[in-house]
Design a protein that fits this description.
alpha/beta; Rossmann fold; 7-stranded parallel β-sheet; two-stranded parallel sheet; 11 helices; 36% helix
């Protein structure tokens, strides 16, 4: 690495958000290092270094002299909150944050900035007021059944605050759901449901959904790295949160689907039980706004949902056209073949509606 090349270390960066950041920084000529437990994971955008996210090892040398450290590590919350899963959700966040703090403290040349994942779920379930970094209420709500998630978020940020890095600027990324085109992410599953006529409101549809376009996520992370005057918690969310009903309506319009079957809360509860996940992930109202980002001058490329979904649909259509243009020629055969398309009637409505939120590859950190 030359003396002029900037370096970013992405801890736990092999998931959806890490892949987006790796490609973003690599295209801007950064040296990108991903700390991962999967030794076989490879992409052309980064060097992969193995760690266990618990103990110090040779990986810690990568932090010495780095421009930025971005920690994305943490077990997925897409599971039932039984005792073992609760332990893993909490420990994976606390242990990785603590060991990174130990590694930073041992650096001869400290990283200039450390961005650590947190979550927009830290704020109280809210319909009537937006939640920001200055006046937002941090608390659980019996209605949303979210006390465990809020407790995890607070413990996560506390571990980050306690990490001994006095000469490294630290920013906690309270990130909302990130919308992107990668297969298996929340937006792709939502889109599939809408195109099948299953994209109606969920559990009444009044709960707010804070969201962020994947491009603005990457832009905001780079912007925070470059801004030496911002530290502490920062909300990564678009400035215009929408209700679940509004979200699904915009998505149906973009997909050309005039209707969408809704799912009542009792249907959601059953679906989430079958999917081994938690209804809280859907029913909690997250009305989070990015006050610190906008006050400091950050401008969103996609500030409203219609523009964000319009861009994602344009990119998906472009990629589909490229795939058609480069499709290999079919092999000739003398045998007559009977083709069968997918049977849309076989789609399970309850499980499908519930699934869209939570197979998102890390689209929401916690």
């Amino acid at each position: 690495m030359s003396t002029t090349t900037r370096k970013v270390v992405l801890a736990g960066g092999s998931g959806f958000l890490g892949q987006q950041l790796a490609e973003w920084f690599a295209e801007r000529d950064w040296d990108v290092v991903v700390l991962t437990r999967d030794a076989g994971h490879r992409t052309p955008h980064a060097r992969f270094v193995t760690w266990d996210a618990k103990t110090l090892g040779p990986w810690a040398a990568e932090l010495d002299g780095a421009t930025a450290l971005v920690n994305l590590a943490g077990r997925s919350v897409n599971c039932r909150y039984q005792a073992r899963n609760r332990e893993l959700i909490l420990s994976s966040r606390i242990d990785s944050t603590r060991v990174l703090g130990q590694a930073v403290a041992r650096c001869e040349q400290l990283p200039r900035v450390w961005l650590n994942s947190s979550t927009a779920t830290i704020y109280k379930h809210s319909f009537d007021r937006p939640m920001d970094e200055l006046t937002g209420v941090i608390a659980g709500s019996p209605e949303a059944h979210d006390q465990f998630s809020v407790d995890v978020a607070q413990a996560w940020e506390q571990a980050f605050d306690e990490a001994a890095a006095p000469r490294t600027r630290k920013v906690a990324l309270r990130t909302a759901i990130v919308l992107g085109t990668a297969p298996g992410t929340a937006y792709r599953i939502l889109r599939r449901l809408a195109r099948c006529g299953l994209g109606g409101s969920i559990a009444g549809g009044k709960q707010y959904m804070s969201w962020l376009h994947e491009t603005d996520f990457c832009r905001a992370v780079e912007w925070l790295i470059d801004r030496d005057d911002l530290a502490g918690p920062v909300n990564l969310a678009a400035p215009e949160p929408v209700t679940n009903r509004q979200f699904m309506q915009v998505l149906r319009t973009a997909c050309g689907m005039p209707f969408g079957l809704p799912a009542a809360r009792w249907m959601l509860e059953i679906g989430m039980l079958l999917l081994r996940s938690q209804a809280e992930l859907v029913i909690k109202s997250r009305r989070v706004v990015p006050t610190r980002l906008t006050a400091a001058g950050f401008t969103f490329r996609f500030p409203n949902l219609a523009s964000a979904i319009g861009d994602l649909e344009h990119r998906l259509a472009r990629d589909a056209n490229l795939a058609v243009n480069f499709r290999p020629a079919p092999r000739l055969s003398c045998r007559r073949m009977k083709l069968h398309g997918p049977d849309a009637k076989g789609i399970n409505h309850v499980q499908g509606i519930a699934a869209f939120q939570f197979r998102g590859g890390g689209s929401r950190p916690a």
